[in-house]
Amino acid sequence: MTRSENNHGTVRSYSVGFGLSIILTLVAYYAGTHTIVHGWTLLYGLAALAIAQLFVQLVFFLHLSRGSESRWNRTALSFAAMVVAILVFGSLWIMKNLSYDHEHLPSSYQNQVIVKDEGYQPSNH
Amino acid sequence: MSQTTEQTATAKTIFGFWVYLMTDCVLFASLFASFAVLRFSTYGGSAGNELFSMPYVLVETMALLFSSYTAGLGLLAARRGNKRQVLGWFAVTMLLGLMFLTMELSEFHKLAVEGNSWRRSGFLSAFFTLVGTHGAHITTGLIWMAVLLAKIWQQGITSVNLKRLTMLSMFWHFLDIIWIFIFTIVYLFGVNP
Question: Which one of A60, A84, A93 would you mutate to disrupt binding with B, by most B Cβ within 10 Å of its Cβ?
Answer without folding.
Answer: A84
